[in-house]
């Protein structure tokens, strides 16, 4: 543990509490790690501006944004950028989506937009209302967006597509996708993320490893969703949260308590401080 030079952390379901915040203890532990010379990397499905907003006032060095599509320093200097979904790939996903009751959220540049099939629009708006109510009750930050019709969306310059629906619907949708074309991640049972094949948090970890000139054994990674498996595999020590999905726990070297118990911070404090 004394040889650890880089700590890579997922946000949602890992470092963040149910209310979407980093605990006071978490801020203290990350600060102490940073002060002792350990680099902090945030690996998230979120874009950089969202990571910076969450980490405001908390030191971190690197970010693997959009599941590793963009790897950069905390101030935005790009170390590696992988391709967006191309027109053909996005058009195929949109055409397939027309047959399923789901809401799609996606990054387009620095925008985060929402759409759904036209026939599902009334239910999509109901879903958004319930989602807003959930954030209100749990005191999680919520940034509402207008739900656009699918036919009004141009299928270009899209970083990733996120699909929200019931688990069995998302699984049926995912069965139509070629893993040689797409990176397919179940972040949780009701949230599916799709990007070009080759995009992964593992690729982001490798980019920072080369930039820092460190070995794999000098890296700890902690996560909970299937999009975290790549970074756990590329770290010398891969840690799964207590609330992690089963496939993540199978790939992990160690387990931490759940995010409800501030498990990532507890593990870091007990093992690295």
UniProtKB/TrEMBL annotation:
Annotated keywords: Hydrolase
Any one cellular component term from GO for this entry?
A: cytosol
Q: Does the keyword Hydrolase apply?
A: yes
Gene3D superfamilies xref list: 3.30.1240.10, HAD superfamily/HAD-like (3.40.50.1000)
Q: Name one GO molecular function term.
A: magnesium ion binding
Pfam families associated with the record: Hydrolase_3
Superkingdom is Bacteria
Protein name as it appears in the record: Cof-type HAD-IIB family hydrolase
Native organism: Grylomicrobium aquisgranensis
């Amino acid at each position: 543990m004394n040889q650890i030079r880089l700590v890579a952390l997922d946000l949602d379901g890992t470092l963040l509490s149910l209310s979407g915040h980093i605990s006071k203890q978490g801020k203290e532990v990350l600060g102490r790690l940073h002060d002792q010379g350990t680099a902090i990397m945030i690996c998230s499905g979120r874009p950089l501006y969202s990571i910076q907003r969450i980490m405001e006032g908390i030191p971190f060095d690197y970010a693997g944004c959009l599941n590793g599509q963009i790897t950069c320093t905390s101030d935005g200097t790009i170390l590696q950028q992988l391709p967006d979904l191309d027109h053909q790939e996005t058009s195929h996903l949109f055409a397939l989506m027309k047959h399923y009751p789901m809401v799609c959220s996606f990054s387009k540049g620095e925008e985060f937009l929402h759409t759904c099939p036209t026939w599902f629009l009334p239910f999509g708006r109901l879903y958004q209302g319930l989602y807003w109510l959930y954030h209100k009750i749990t005191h999680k930050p919520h940034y509402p967006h207008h739900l656009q019709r699918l036919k009004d969306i141009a299928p270009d310059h899209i970083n990733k597509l996120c699909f929200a629906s019931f688990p069995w619907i998302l699984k049926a949708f995912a069965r139509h996708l070629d893993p040689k074309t797409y990176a397919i991640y179940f972040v949780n049972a009701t949230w599916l993320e799709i990007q070009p094949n080759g995009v992964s948090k593992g690729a982001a970890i490798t980019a920072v490893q080369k930039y820092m000139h460190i070995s794999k054994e000098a890296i700890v990674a902690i996560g909970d969703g299937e999009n975290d498996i790549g970074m756990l595999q590329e770290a010398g020590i891969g840690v799964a949260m207590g609330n992690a999905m089963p496939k993540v726990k199978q790939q992990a070297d160690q387990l931490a308590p759940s995010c409800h118990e501030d498990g990532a911070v507890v593990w870091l404090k007990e093992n690295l401080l």
